Recover the amino acids of this structure.
């Protein structure tokens, strides 16, 4: 599958409900458990590489297992258990990034995806990603998370048809979902 096809598949998969994604994963003999994005990542990884991601084995900080704090160093890996929303970690990132740092959903999602793929970032990589995303959001408002296809659809739909009734919105949404289900079926040769 080309990168362009993977982008199109990712978009269409976000329109499926979690139970439908689980059906797709089952038909591909992939692990069906986890969040919507975890299942989508597994499907995309399989379609890109032909390899199955097993249950995520997040690299963990051995210090955290023993109840100790993990060292906070820009060159150190952000391992599961070392990323905490605590004062010590906030102060560390405020020193690295600046006083404008705060914990965000996009940061946690980014970390979870990296951990799921077995590729934990360094604290500096996280800081760079966070700062880039922060700058982007200064110029444009944050869009809903990728897996929130319904919210993104409603925003677009109401921009173009602000006087629509709830019924017409619901019909349009279901038509769009069915369109994306057909795309998934066509691209994967299975039925969601």
């Amino acid at each position: 599958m080309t990168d362009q096809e993977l982008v199109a598949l990712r978009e269409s998969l976000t329109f499926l409900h979690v139970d439908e994604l689980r059906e797709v994963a089952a038909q591909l003999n992939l692990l069906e458990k986890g969040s919507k994005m975890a299942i989508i990542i597994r499907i995309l990884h399989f379609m890109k590489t032909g390899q199955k991601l097993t249950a995520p084995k997040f690299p963990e900080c051995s210090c955290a297992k023993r109840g100790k704090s993990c060292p906070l160093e820009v060159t150190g890996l952000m391992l599961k258990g070392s990323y905490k929303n605590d004062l010590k970690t906030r102060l560390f990132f405020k020193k690295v990034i600046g006083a404008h740092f705060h914990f965000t959903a996009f940061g946690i999602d980014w970390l979870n995806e990296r951990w799921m793929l077995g590729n934990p970032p360094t604290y500096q990589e996280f800081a760079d990603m966070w700062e880039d995303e922060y700058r982007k959001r200064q110029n444009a408002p944050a869009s809903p998370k990728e897996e929130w296809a319904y919210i993104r659809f409603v925003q677009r739909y109401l921009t173009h048809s602000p006087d629509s009734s709830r019924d017409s919105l619901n019909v349009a949404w279901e038509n769009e979902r069915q369109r994306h289900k057909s795309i998934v079926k066509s691209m994967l040769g299975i039925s969601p």
Summary: The chain is about 60% helix and 0% strand.
